[in-house]
Amino acid sequence: MEGIKEFINNTCADLIVTLTVRENDTPGCIFRREEFCLHIGECKKVCFGNECNPFLDCICACYCEFGQCASTELAVRKRGSAVDRFINNTPKIFFLNAGPSIVITSLHWCH
Q1: Beta-carbon neighbour count of residue 49 at 10 Å?
Q2: Predicted local distance difference test score (pLDDT) of residue 36
Q3: Using an 8 Å Cβ cutoff, are 75 and 83 in contact?
Q4: What pLDDT score does 25 carry?
Protein backbone atom coordinates (compact mmCIF):
# COMPACT_ATOMS: atom_id res chain seq x y z
CA MET A 1 0.00 0.00 0.00
CA GLU A 2 1.48 3.31 -1.02
CA GLY A 3 0.68 6.55 0.77
CA ILE A 4 -2.07 8.76 -0.63
CA LYS A 5 -2.82 12.26 0.57
CA GLU A 6 -4.81 15.24 -0.69
CA PHE A 7 -3.13 18.66 -0.81
CA ILE A 8 -5.07 21.95 -1.09
CA ASN A 9 -3.47 25.30 -1.92
CA ASN A 10 -5.39 28.11 -0.22
CA THR A 11 -2.52 30.59 -0.58
CA CYS A 12 -2.30 33.45 -3.05
CA ALA A 13 0.58 31.91 -5.03
CA ASP A 14 1.45 28.72 -6.90
CA LEU A 15 3.44 26.41 -4.63
CA ILE A 16 6.22 23.93 -5.22
CA VAL A 17 5.61 21.10 -2.73
CA THR A 18 8.27 18.53 -1.86
CA LEU A 19 7.37 15.35 0.01
CA THR A 20 10.16 13.35 1.63
CA VAL A 21 9.17 9.69 1.94
CA ARG A 22 10.67 7.91 4.94
CA GLU A 23 12.61 4.70 4.45
CA ASN A 24 11.13 2.04 6.73
CA ASP A 25 10.29 3.42 10.18
CA THR A 26 13.36 5.53 10.87
CA PRO A 27 12.94 9.34 10.80
CA GLY A 28 15.70 11.02 8.82
CA CYS A 29 16.24 8.06 6.49
CA ILE A 30 15.05 9.03 3.02
CA PHE A 31 13.47 6.56 0.61
CA ARG A 32 12.77 9.21 -2.05
CA ARG A 33 11.46 12.71 -2.68
CA GLU A 34 8.34 13.64 -4.66
CA GLU A 35 7.97 17.18 -6.00
CA PHE A 36 4.91 18.74 -7.62
CA CYS A 37 3.37 22.11 -8.41
CA LEU A 38 0.15 23.07 -6.64
CA HIS A 39 -1.59 26.00 -8.33
CA ILE A 40 -3.63 28.64 -6.48
CA GLY A 41 -6.90 27.05 -5.31
CA GLU A 42 -5.91 23.61 -6.61
CA CYS A 43 -6.72 20.37 -4.80
CA LYS A 44 -4.52 17.42 -5.79
CA LYS A 45 -4.36 13.79 -4.65
CA VAL A 46 -0.78 12.58 -4.58
CA CYS A 47 0.51 9.00 -4.28
CA PHE A 48 3.92 8.53 -2.69
CA GLY A 49 6.13 5.73 -1.41
CA ASN A 50 5.29 2.03 -1.74
CA GLU A 51 3.97 -0.83 0.41
CA CYS A 52 7.22 -0.97 2.41
CA ASN A 53 7.69 2.80 2.70
CA PRO A 54 4.26 4.49 3.01
CA PHE A 55 5.19 7.22 5.53
CA LEU A 56 6.13 10.85 5.02
CA ASP A 57 9.14 12.26 6.83
CA CYS A 58 8.82 15.86 5.67
CA ILE A 59 6.52 18.27 3.81
CA CYS A 60 8.09 21.40 2.33
CA ALA A 61 6.29 24.16 0.42
CA CYS A 62 7.69 27.27 -1.23
CA TYR A 63 6.80 30.05 -3.64
CA CYS A 64 8.47 32.99 -5.35
CA GLU A 65 6.06 35.51 -6.85
CA PHE A 66 5.68 39.27 -7.06
CA GLY A 67 9.25 39.75 -5.86
CA GLN A 68 8.54 37.89 -2.63
CA CYS A 69 9.62 34.39 -1.59
CA ALA A 70 8.52 32.16 1.28
CA SER A 71 9.00 28.57 2.32
CA THR A 72 8.02 26.34 5.20
CA GLU A 73 8.91 22.84 6.24
CA LEU A 74 7.34 20.34 8.61
CA ALA A 75 9.78 17.51 9.39
CA VAL A 76 9.62 14.46 11.65
CA ARG A 77 12.45 14.29 14.18
CA LYS A 78 11.07 11.48 16.35
CA ARG A 79 8.84 8.55 15.44
CA GLY A 80 5.41 8.88 17.09
CA SER A 81 5.79 12.63 17.75
CA ALA A 82 2.97 15.11 17.16
CA VAL A 83 4.50 16.08 13.79
CA ASP A 84 4.79 12.42 12.77
CA ARG A 85 1.16 11.76 13.69
CA PHE A 86 0.01 14.96 11.97
CA ILE A 87 1.65 14.41 8.58
CA ASN A 88 0.95 10.68 8.45
CA ASN A 89 -2.56 10.45 9.93
CA THR A 90 -4.34 13.32 8.19
CA PRO A 91 -5.93 12.65 4.79
CA LYS A 92 -5.97 16.32 3.67
CA ILE A 93 -3.22 18.90 4.07
CA PHE A 94 -4.00 22.60 3.53
CA PHE A 95 -1.50 25.34 2.72
CA LEU A 96 -2.55 28.83 3.93
CA ASN A 97 -1.03 32.30 4.04
CA ALA A 98 -0.20 34.01 7.31
CA GLY A 99 1.10 37.34 6.09
CA PRO A 100 4.00 36.52 3.79
CA SER A 101 4.46 33.08 5.37
CA ILE A 102 3.03 29.67 4.44
CA VAL A 103 1.18 27.60 7.05
CA ILE A 104 0.66 23.82 6.83
CA THR A 105 -2.58 22.70 8.50
CA SER A 106 -5.49 20.28 8.34
CA LEU A 107 -9.13 20.17 9.34
CA HIS A 108 -8.94 16.47 10.24
CA TRP A 109 -6.12 16.28 12.77
CA CYS A 110 -6.80 14.47 16.04
CA HIS A 111 -4.16 14.51 18.78
Answers
A1: 20
A2: 97
A3: yes
A4: 86
